[in-house]
């Protein structure tokens, strides 16, 4: 059994060691240093409750400019990647229906993450393989601003894939798993 504090600490370690350490997101370090990242642990495995938590975090961020980005972590739900993809799709639909399209976007991370055209054992999948299923809420305006100040932002995904493949599955898995 885990505690909320453990899940958040493990997630912070994953962000520091994997996301920032591998430079998968060149903008993450700044927000971590600024302490502008919020973490929510949703213990429920009920999809309606999980989606409610997601949209409530968007509402909370509307009223809290100091929170730049937020991770909603689901340690007890969406173990199956296909079930998780259903959550992602529903969350994106919810953003549209609640008039948040263009304001927030959801990034997806899952322990079994697999890109559509990639083999399950492709090291590239570790660019999005987290220690828990989670949704990452980003402010679209901030993403656009950050991308404007970054040379060749369209190359970020390919650079990440190249890095992960060069390091290999064993390295990427060990790095991620060391966060638990």
TrEMBL record:
It holds the Pfam family DUF1415. InterPro entries: DUF1415. This is DUF1415 domain-containing protein. It comes from Panacibacter ginsenosidivorans.
């Amino acid at each position: 059994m885990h505690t909320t504090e453990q899940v958040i600490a493990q997630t912070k370690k994953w962000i520091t060691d994997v996301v920032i350490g591998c430079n998968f997101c060149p903008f993450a370090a700044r927000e971590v240093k600024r302490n502008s990242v919020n973490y929510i642990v949703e213990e429920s495995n009920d999809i309606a409750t999980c989606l409610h938590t997601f949209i409530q975090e968007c509402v909370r961020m509307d009223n809290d400019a100091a929170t730049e980005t937020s991770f909603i972590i689901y340690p007890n739900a969406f173990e199956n990647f296909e079930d998780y993809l259903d959550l992602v799709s529903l969350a994106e639909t919810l953003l549209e229906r609640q008039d948040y399209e263009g304001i927030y976007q959801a990034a997806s991370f899952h322990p079994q993450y697999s890109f559509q055209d990639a083999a399950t054992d492709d090291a590239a999948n570790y660019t999005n393989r987290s220690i828990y299923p989670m949704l990452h809420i980003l402010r679209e305006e901030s993403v656009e601003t950050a991308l404007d100040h970054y040379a060749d932002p369209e190359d970020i995904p390919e650079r990440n894939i190249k890095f992960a493949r060069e390091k290999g599955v064993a390295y990427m898995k060990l790095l991620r798993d060391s966060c638990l």
